[in-house]
Amino acid sequence: MAFSPLVDELVESLRCLPGVGQKTAQRMAFHLLEKGRGGGERLAGALSAAMTGVRRCDSCQNFSDTPICPICEKPERHTGTLCVVESPSDLLAIEQAGDYRGGYFVLMGHLSPIDGIGPEDIGIELLLRRVRDESVSELILATNPTVEGEATAHYIADRLDGTGVLTTRLAHGIPVGGELGYVDGFTLTHAFRGRKPLTD
Amino acid sequence: MAFSPLVDELVESLRCLPGVGQKTAQRMAFHLLEKGRGGGERLAGALSAAMTGVRRCDSCQNFSDTPICPICEKPERHTGTLCVVESPSDLLAIEQAGDYRGGYFVLMGHLSPIDGIGPEDIGIELLLRRVRDESVSELILATNPTVEGEATAHYIADRLDGTGVLTTRLAHGIPVGGELGYVDGFTLTHAFRGRKPLTD
């Protein structure tokens, strides 16, 4: 390599970021060195603080600085409803939509026997314990609409069968603002089956 | 925001990287927190070391850990030929091609009167001093084939007019492995004008 050890190490380290290859890492390193030293130093501090300081919430498994995350700490979020999502970014999307005001449980993945990921790896026992202990009345299974997401939702629903807890799944249908011509057949079929009277 | 201050600060800091917006920064932060804590800590260290430790080479202006960069330090690279490039990534591309064995001068930009960037901002005086002091016989002006790059090359060539230093510009033509049908008209015209006998 033509560069100094420090620059080489920076380029190599940047490749740990998802979607960043050799060329992009180089471009990022040169950009930071040329125009963004302040930003680079801030990023170094933030990375170091987050890598050591961020843990999982003991209650919902979401990322948190404290043993219990800010959402779980709010008494008004304990509404008897829990929304189960696969990842923190799913939770963020729901929070940004702003309508749901209940609690969460973040699985940090989905069941995947082929990868050796079973119920205990994604905290389903912890979830079931919470459902029992906090007298949860509804569990919204908002896992992704993929094969693994559906399987995970059905597994959780099966485990709660007979306990009287209502398990629900998010509605399928056409996205708001979308064009019918671009919607796939499965989604359209779901949208037709779930149609509602206009006066609803 | 739904997240902890540490995660928020990490997402915000990642946005200083070029081409990284809110969504990508989020994805990067979650990836590091979930699966890449080791990589994240390594990146923090590399960033911090590079931001404080990397400087410009006193001789060629390239990024370097030392006052004189590894290329300028090698006596065999002082061949009387200097290659002038706009950025460290251009230098890297030429080094990776592996054919050129002379010295370099990195302008870290190009002349751009509209942005207030004049000859002194990109180190042209330092370059001219080197040409004089090191008895350079050829200056390869490998600035980009853009309006600003051409203007910068012509400005340097004009300043050296009458000094006996040979100034050259990289050849234009069709890229190796390219298809003629996709080559633009200007490049084709250059390729025709620069054609060579097959026995060459």
TrEMBL record, chains A, B:
Q: Which CDD domains match?
A: TOPRIM_recR (cd01025)
Q: Alphabetically, which GO biological process terms does the record hold?
A: DNA recombination; DNA repair
Q: What's a single GO MF annotation on this record?
A: zinc ion binding
UniProt keywords (A-Z) are: DNA damage, DNA recombination, DNA repair, Metal-binding, Zinc, Zinc-finger
What SMART domains has UniProt attached to this entry?
Answer: TOPRIM
Q: Which InterPro entries match?
A: DNA_Rcmb_RecR, Rcmb_RecR, Rcmb_RecR_Znf, TOPRIM_dom, TOPRIM_RecR
| Segments forming domain Toprim | 80-175
Q: Which SUPFAM superfamilies match?
A: Recombination protein RecR
Chain ranges of zinc fingers (C4-type):
57-72
- HAMAP family documented for this protein: RecR
Q: What does this protein do?
A: May play a role in DNA repair. It seems to be involved in an RecBC-independent recombinational process of DNA repair. It may act with RecF and RecO.
Q: Which PANTHER family match?
A: RECOMBINATION PROTEIN RECR
What family does this chain come from, according to its entry? Belongs to the RecR family.
Q: What is this protein called?
A: Recombination protein RecR
